[in-house]
Amino acid sequence: MGTIDKAWWKETVIYQVYIRSFKDSNGDGIGDLPGLISKLDYIQSLGVGLVWLNPIYQSPNDDNGYDISNYEAVLPTFGTIADFNTLLTGLHDRGIKLIMDLVVNHTSDEHMWFVESRKSRDNPYRDYYHWWPAEKGKPPHRHSFFDPGADAWQYDTATDAYYLHYFSKKQPDLNWENPKVRQEIYQMMRFWLDKGIDGFRLDAISYIAKDTNWPEVSEEALKSRYHNDWSYFFSKGPRLHEYLHEMNREVLSHYKDVVTIAETPGVEIHEALPFVHIDRQELSMLYHFEGMRIGYLHGFFKRPDPEGYSLPLFKGLYTDWNDIFAQEGWGTIYLGNHDQPRMLSRWGNDAPEFRNAASKLLMTFLLTMRATPIFYNGDELGMANIKFDNIRHYRDIETLSMYQYLQSQQGDLDQFIRDQQFGARDNSRTPFQWDATPNAGFTTGEPWITINADHVFVNEEAQDADGNSPLNYFRRLTQLRKEHPVLVYGDYKLYDKDHEQVYCYTRTDDISSIVVVLNFSNELVHYPLPEGIVLKQAEPLMNNETSLQLEDNTVVLLPWQALLFAVG
Ligand code: TEU
Ligand code: CA
């Protein structure tokens, strides 16, 4: 084991709360702070140590809170600042830390800065955003993720100029090249840190720095509607590391024990270390998108491609991302969040006969890798994709704008709906399933988005009472990780890298070693344990099934069986 520095945020398990869908307290169909506060004992029972709260700020909700109109106010739909304080105290009293979403690549167009900025060319806030005067002609093309026309430059008549928006036209990009903007952001960060929060998750942070010479992009890039091609381009901004270092110097370094987790679309493996290397004084951790690309057809928008997935590919990718942080820096690991479909549907199997085992297996993977797990709410129950079959059920701007675009192009809308059943963000945004009652115990009113009908058998109440449920398995896993520091800091070693069904690895430190055996398939697999692996005892440390077939160092793995053994 290397001489890695220990830190609380390396040892914790992160629980992501998508507040809009977690628990509604007042019957308006939207989750809120009082609702969340009423579930703090539940969160504590999970054994997690850090909550990442999706945006709760003032927002017109073009993109569910990722379009902020006032950073220092709580959206009334979610509650008040007093509720927020109660939440923070409630978490801290339970030994749980809290990080908030920091969305500073862009604001809402209803933010005061932008309202001013668009008024006149000499407004003091003009340079808070990126403007291109129309007399210079059309600006060089930039892709917008959420614009039906995919054009990131929006013409604004008031000043006869275009403004930049990588996301929707209601999300204008902030001009980080302007030092005043950076100071405003740092001030706002201090506002929340002074309240006692424990850090931030930094939204789309790899996009903040722009090359304001606005170079033309290649013909090929121009044609691409594929998100990833553009995220690579957007993440290569010239002054990105300078800004992150400055943010650390001006803000973060003045607060003890805070953590930062950067969302870094487009950042490639060879670029990752500088963001989190201790000597550089930038960020604590980042989460990458490389794992999320597997299984989609390259060059298309979220088009599933079964050929594009294989277990060896998956293992190779997560092994590479382990290795990059083996000596320095520190990684995170996740298989789902509010921007991805449900991990069970995407990486496991949500068919009735497999779903419990598969969701437990995925939890086992996340909690035994050498990285901080980011766990999305509902995955502890094995919630599945809702797979809407009609556009009218969707609420997400990403799905709706892409649909509109395809309509304008006479594209294949049926194919799109099928693709979205697999990949849409709304799959993971349906309400948390608390019980079997008609609204799943989420709300007494009309939910803002349809609740998954499977809540009659997949819900917290039922799983809490069942010792064998995914929920109780998750609780045992978080406990196990606490009891075995080797699962946090121990070296990771992959075995049988080409095996098509089994993911097998060890975690080892100076005093102990654990082998993890995961059957990522619907079949029974006879798996001889790798040479040199001698089990300390036949009794597993963890088993997601009630039986175990082990003879002469060969395990007969049930479909989606997950096993952990102490190694001698
Ligand atoms: O996501 C950043 C991002 O790059 C997204 O385009 C992401 O790739 C996409 O959702 C995948 O389908 C962050 C937030 O997590 C997301 O919810 C926001 O919509 C986005 O920023 C804009 O703030
Ligand atoms: Ca509510």
Q: List the bound ligands.
A: 1-O-alpha-D-glucopyranosyl-D-fructose, calcium ion
Q: What do the pLDDT scores average to?
A: 96
Helix content: 25-40%
Tell me the domain tally: 3
Count of extended strands: 21
CATH topology of the largest domain: TIM Barrel
Under the CATH scheme, the architecture of the largest domain is Alpha-Beta Barrel
Uncertain runs are none
- How many angstroms separate the termini? 17 Å
Overall radius of gyration: 24 Å
What class would the helix/strand composition place it in?
Answer: alpha/beta
User: What is the CATH homology-level superfamily of the largest domain?
Assistant: Glycosidases
Instruction: Tell me the overall shape.
Output: globular
Cross-sheet strand order for the largest sheet: 11-10-9-5-2-1-13-12
- CATH class category label of the largest domain: Alpha Beta
Largest sheet: 8 strands, parallel
Helix count, DSSP H or I runs of 4 or more residues: 19
The oligomerization state is: single chain
Strand content: 15-25%
Q: Can you tell me about this structure?
A:
The protein is α/β, with parallel strands linked by helices and 568 residues long. The chain has three domains: 8-106 and 179-475, TIM Barrel; 112-164, Oligo-1,6-glucosidase, Domain 2 (Oligo-1,6-glucosidase, domain 2, Alpha-Beta Complex); 491-566, Immunoglobulin-like (Sandwich). It has helices at 8-11, 33-37, 40-45, 81-93, 112-117, 179-194, 219-223, 227-234, 240-250, 269-276, 290-293, 311-324, 343-347, 355-368, 397-408, 413-423, 460-465, 470-483, 486-489; strands at residues 14-17, 50-53, 57-58, 70-74, 97-102, 131-133, 153-156, 161-164, 199-202, 259-263, 285-287, 332-333, 372-376, 491-495, 502-508, 513-519, 525-528, 542-543, 550-551, 554-557, 562-566. The strands form five sheets. Strands 11-10-9-5-2-1-13-12 form an eight-stranded parallel sheet. Strand 19 and strand 20 form a beta hairpin. The chain starts with 7 loop residues before the first helix and ends with a strand. Bound molecules: 1-O-alpha-D-glucopyranosyl-D-fructose (TEU) and calcium ion. 1-O-alpha-D-glucopyranosyl-D-fructose binds at residues 63, 66, 103, 145, 167, 203-204, 227, 231, 263, 265, 338-339, 398, 425. The site of 1-O-alpha-D-glucopyranosyl-D-fructose has 15 residues, from helix 8.
